[in-house]
Automatic annotation (TrEMBL):
Residues 1-52 are annotated as: Disordered. InterPro entries: DUF1684 (IPR012467). Residues 12-32 have a biased composition (Basic and acidic residues). This is DUF1684 domain-containing protein. Pfam families: DUF1684. It comes from Natronorubrum thiooxidans. Signal peptide: none annotated.
Amino acid sequence: MSDSTDTNGDVDVDRWRDELESKRDEKDEFFAEHPQSPIPPEERDAFDGLDYFAPDPTYRVSATATVHDDPEVVLMETTAGREMRYLRVATLEFDLEREEEDLEDGTFELAAYQLESPNEEPLFVPFRDKTTGQQSYEGGRYMELSPDRDLTDGDELVVDFNLAYSPFCAYSETFDCPLPPEENWLEVTIPAGERFA
């Protein structure tokens, strides 16, 4: 299994942090300079990088997959008022154990989806949490997971909330983005990944 499906116990934190910072630098460069950046052209000169929560390995968790052999269709509303059809292909269960007294521990679940048409796309994990609309984008955030083989029940894979990102529609109304369905609204604070003012 690749890094996205390794278990969480043997990560080299310094290397992980360096790789995360490198990915963030690459994304900032893309947003600032690439023709397909979601930042409107007239705003790119003033763009000085995305805002992030500090890297925190607490939010790189090992999740246990339950695979849905006959996945249900989930209609996700979009920011433009349309609906997109996804399949709920797996449920990921994970524990959060934090040192901060004001943050909740516990076991949580997120559904992972794929578009209904057959494809090799990564698993799509949109979610809201208690930072949504406060410290992170009001439409929720996304993660993508790329296991290097088909998941089976009980497989462990890494879910790294430090890689959670805001959809392009956070930066421009020209984009239409699916909104996390209610089953992926976490009643917990996840101060990891992209922030949004």
